[in-house]
Structure formats: C-alpha cells, structure tokens
Amino acid sequence: MAGDSETRPWGSWHVIDIGPGYKVKRIEVLPHSRLSYQTHTHRSEHWVVIYGKATCIIDGVTTVAGPGESVDVGVGQAHRICNETDEPLSIIEVQRGGYTGEDDIVRLEDDFGRAEAEKTASA
C-alpha cells in the first residue's frame, strides 16, 4: 500500500505508489551497506539513482550508476544494490509485473543471515 515503509539493516524502503501491475518505492541505502543478492519470480525492476552512487550487481556483472542514471533488472535476474561510499544512496525503484509483494524474494546471499533463515524455513 502507498505509504508503507520498513527499516532494514541496510537502510529503508518507502512505497510511493502502487497499482495493478506496478509498485514504486524510494530505497535509502546506508553508507557501506548492501541489499541481499536476490531474484524475483514475478517482477522486473527499474532503478533510478536520485543521489549517491549505486554499485549494481546483475547476474554477476557490476555497473556503477550516479544521479540521473538508471539500471534495469529483468524477471528472474540475480541482483543487488550496494552503497560502497561514505555518502547516503537514494534510488527510485519501479517494479513491474503481475505480483509485487514482498514475499517474491529469493535471497541468494545476505549479509544479515536472512538467506540461511529462508533455506532452513523451507527445509
């Protein structure tokens, strides 16, 4: 729902807008933090850097994007956003697909133990 937000160990996300087939979020990544390396079954993502410098890893390929630059992640591609700088990072993420729920995340690697917890829970 628009207005939803959550604080995570790496920073936070805030839902700006949501509708049939899409969700728009603002993602704030703390300095020297990164999101989990993950995939989604039902959605693609388009990231636009608002401020800071994003190190984006998509299927093992690293790209660096600055303010005004964007990166696309296809459905099923492994991806992560990293902030390797001393400054905050803010991106706008546009999710597109038939389902944009938070449970459409498969964590492949995670700095906070969530990938291992998911594997244990599904065993």
Can you walk through the features of this model?
The structure is a single chain. The protein has 123 residues and is mainly beta. The protein has one domain: Jelly Rolls (Sandwich). 7% of the residues lie in helices and 54% in strands. The chain has one helix at 114-122, and strands spanning 5-8, 11-19, 22-29, 33-34, 37-39, 43-51, 54-58, 61-65, 70-73, 79-83, 89-97, 106-109. The strands form 3 sheets. It has a 6-stranded antiparallel β-sheet with strand order 1-2-3-11-6-9, with no helix packed on it. It has a 4-stranded antiparallel β-sheet with strand order 4-10-7-8, with no helix packed on it. The longest helix has 9 residues, at 114-122. The protein is globular and about 35 Å long. The termini are far apart. This is Cupin domain-containing protein. InterPro entries: Man6P_isomerase-2_C, Mannose-6P_isomerase_type2, RmlC-like_jellyroll, RmlC_Cupin_sf. GO terms for molecular function: mannose-1-phosphate guanylyltransferase (GTP) activity. It comes from Nocardioides turkmenicus.
CATH level-1 class: Mainly Beta
Number of DSSP helical runs:
1
CATH topology: Jelly Rolls
Which CATH-level-2 architecture? Sandwich
- Content of β-strand: over 45%
Major sheet size, sense and barrel closure: 6 strands, antiparallel
